[in-house]
């Protein structure tokens, strides 16, 4: 299997720019983040650690204790080196040098957490942004969907599969630079029309996916309609639009099955839109 090469300087800078915790500098900001997550999940401390380190299914009390130890360790490291230490660096240092059992955290399986190459590769894959749009890519999106499926009893979420219409024609007529601009326009339109906390990702060439939190199916469809209207307005000179399929989770769903159903519904929407134009 081909190994991932170490990121070059520009890729490393991009990873830092896309790191959610790069914008979190102080203990107070971490506390504010916990408060923010508490509005949408019953396990805000576990959610912080999941996003920071990829730690799944951690008990909330364990997560709270570990996060407090991470922040204390960060303060000690910062004092030692004479500058502020990134919270993720402090967390990895604590977990590598002092696994949870010796740090006073008891896990159900009692095994220490080890920062393995596969964990680092997964973190890099999920953190990597699409070069053209700056959006998250498929790996990160699917990780978020899997997490939301675990939260399904506490809140609802919708997955939307989007495929651009007229993109190939615009690319052929106006060139690849124009095509890239169309992709970026969808990303910008989403940032304007979607709510804070909703996610748009580029999962293929001209394919995108949305994760809309705390919505009914009708609300999700309305959000897609607003996004389409904004996108069509921004790209009117190119004649592009998109087809979309909205799906809500059902019992037994996986991230893959949910996205596949949204994909199938998107194709039905594409056929209906094409028929309305020719009919």
Q: What does the secondary structure layout of this molecule look like, with pairings?
A:
Elements: H1 9-17, H2 27-38, H3 44-53, H4 60-81, H5 87-97, H6 117-127, H7 138-150, E1 157-165, H8 167-174, H9 176-193, E2 199-202, E3 207-213, H10 217-234, E4 241-247, H11 255-278
Helix pairs in contact: 2-3, 3-4, 4-5, 6-7, 8-9, 9-10
CATH topology of the largest domain: Alpha-Beta Plaits
What number of structural domains do the residues give?
A: 2
How many helices? The count is 11
The CATH class designation of the largest domain is: Alpha Beta
CATH architecture of the largest domain: 2-Layer Sandwich
GO biological process, one term: negative regulation of bacterial-type flagellum-dependent cell motility
Enzyme class: transferase
GO molecular function, one term: diguanylate cyclase activity
InterPro entries: Diguanylate_Cyclase, GGDEF_dom, Nucleotide_cyclase, Rev_trsase/Diguanyl_cyclase
Architecture overview:
β2 and β3 form a beta hairpin. It is built from 11 helices and 4 strands; from the N terminus they run αααααααβααββαβα. It is α+β, with helices and mostly antiparallel strands and 279 residues long. It folds into 2 domains: 119 residues, no CATH class; 141 residues, Reverse transcriptase/Diguanylate cyclase domain (Alpha-Beta Plaits, 2-Layer Sandwich). α9 crosses α10.
């Amino acid at each position: 299997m081909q190994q991932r090469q170490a990121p070059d300087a520009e890729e490393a800078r991009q990873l830092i720019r896309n790191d959610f915790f790069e914008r979190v500098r102080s203990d107070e900001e971490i506390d504010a983040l916990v408060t923010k997550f508490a509005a949408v999940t019953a396990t805000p401390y576990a959610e912080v650690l999941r996003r920071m380190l990829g730690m799944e299914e951690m008990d909330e009390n364990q997560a709270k204790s570990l996060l407090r130890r991470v922040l204390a360790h960060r303060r000690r490291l910062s004092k030692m080196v004479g500058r502020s230490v990134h919270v993720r660096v402090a967390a990895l240092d604590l977990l590598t040098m002092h696994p949870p059992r010796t740090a006073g955290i008891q896990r159900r399986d009692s095994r220490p957490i080890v920062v393995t190459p596969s964990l680092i590769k997964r973190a890099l894959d999920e953190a990597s942004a699409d070069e053209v749009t700056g959006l998250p890519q498929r790996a990160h999106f699917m990780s978020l969907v899997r997490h939301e499926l675990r939260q399904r009893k506490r809140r609802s979420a919708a997955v939307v599969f989007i495929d651009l219409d007229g993109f190939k024609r615009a690319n052929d007529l106006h060139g690849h630079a124009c095509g890239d601009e169309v992709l970026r326009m969808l990303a910008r339109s989403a940032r304007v029309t979607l709510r804070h906390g909703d996610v748009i990702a580029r999962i293929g060439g001209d394919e995108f996916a949305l994760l809309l939190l705390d919505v009914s199916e009708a609300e999700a469809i309305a959000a897609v309609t607003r996004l389409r209207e904004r996108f069509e307005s921004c790209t009117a000179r190119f004649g592009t639009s998109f087809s979309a399929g909205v799906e809500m989770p059902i019992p037994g769903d996986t991230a893959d099955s949910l996205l596949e159903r949204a994909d199938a519904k998107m194709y039905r929407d594409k056929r209906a839109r094409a028929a309305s134009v020719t009919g």
